[in-house]
Amino acid sequence: MEKNGGNSTIRDMTSGSPIKLIIQFMIPMFLGNIFQQFYNIADSIVAGQFLGVRALAAIGSTGSLMFFVTGWLNGLSSGFAILVAQWFGAKKYDRMRHYVAMSIYLMVAFAVSMTIGFEIANRPILHLMNYSEEIMPDVTSYMGIIYAGLIVTAAYNALAAFLRALGDSKSPLYFLIISAVINVLLDIVFIIYVGMGVEGCAYATVIAQAISAVLCLIYIVKKFPILHLKKENFTVSFQEMGKLLALGIPMALQFSITAIGVIVVQGAINVYGENYMAGFSAAGKLQNIFSTVFVAFGATIATYVGQNRGAGKMDRVKQGVRCTQLMILVYSVFAMLILYFLGRYMALLFIDASEIQVLGVAETYFHTVFWCYPFLGSIFLYRNALQGLGYGLVPMVGGIFELVARTGIIMLLAGHTSFAGVCLADPAAWISALIPLIPYYIYTMRKWEKQRKAQMTAN
Description:
Layout: H1 18-50, H2 53-60, H3 63-89, H4 93-120, H5 122-128, H6 136-148, H7 150-165, H8 170-193, H9 198-223, H10 238-270, H11 274-310, H12 314-346, H13 356-369, H14 373-388, H15 393-413, H16 419-423, H17 425-458
Helix pairs in contact: 1-2, 1-8, 1-9, 1-11, 2-11, 3-4, 3-7, 3-10, 3-11, 4-7, 5-6, 6-9, 7-9, 8-9, 10-15, 11-12, 11-13, 11-14, 12-13, 12-14, 14-17, 15-17
């Protein structure tokens, strides 16, 4: 049996206390997600404080579009990493490395294709999102630079996903902290000292992401011999690529479908004007910070379930999901209280205190959606649990339910009601996404239980 290379950061999650393993893995994931979000948040803070409300509206309102683009790459890499985690759990390390090599081919192909396609479609997409001509030049420049840097975004996502598949959630965090600090410094240098506009924020983001990718690669080369690829690992296998895509594409689509729904909502908000765009953007940034705990639990459970599924330990899968659901519910109550009562004041991070209407918009959003955070957290749990088990289609169906609900609310209420009515699109989407997820998870676990009892009876 080949050893895992003796690296202490590799964590085998097929033995030991599930709740302890999940918490130990989740905390670095949470901090890593915070710093990964920090790229766009730092851009928004610097732009809002030094360039004004229009710059904040321009950069902040692109969050949904960036989520659409980078979410696709993140979904692909997360899906590919599930097979890496499963074969790691099964202790078939050479097979695992082959999937790593095939994943690299696919990530490069997607990143290059997306850069070309989105650069061509940049302005048409922004016109569809109802951007005014006054704000269009800033948004076009910002997104054009982000699209040009998708190859480094893909590189970091893939390398970090491979590390997490092996149970190492700490190392990607350290690299993100370094690059996030660099991002802030470059934002300040490019905007305050060089005198650039929103383009400076975009360049800072791409450069910082490139640094995190390079650091991740150097670390893998030096510390993870189990991931050192040989020439034979790169032998092209369309069958294995097909297996990777069978998991990666549904996860990517699920991210993108969710993002399309958010883009639809953003398009409706844009009609209300710059103050509503800025307030909605600030609220969204704050909510994303708090929901990173949900994202971290989801990514953790995907790795945990993937490794235990590979090892055939389905009892541990059920136990881990049950513990995580409880932790998500407890945290949801905390997030509800904080954002309901303090959301307006926390928005001051992005907005000057004199912008009373903008702050009011942020507060209205939180008062409309706060009660639904337990549903939002549960989406990440059951979606990622199913993906860790190897089921990619149903999580994507959950994304479709989410998109239909968001779009339906916007079509019914946008232009016919207040801003608060449009905000109801998020709760409707979160509840709808769970409609296929929870029943299918229960069905899957019951099917496994029946199979296990049948095998015991036969023996």
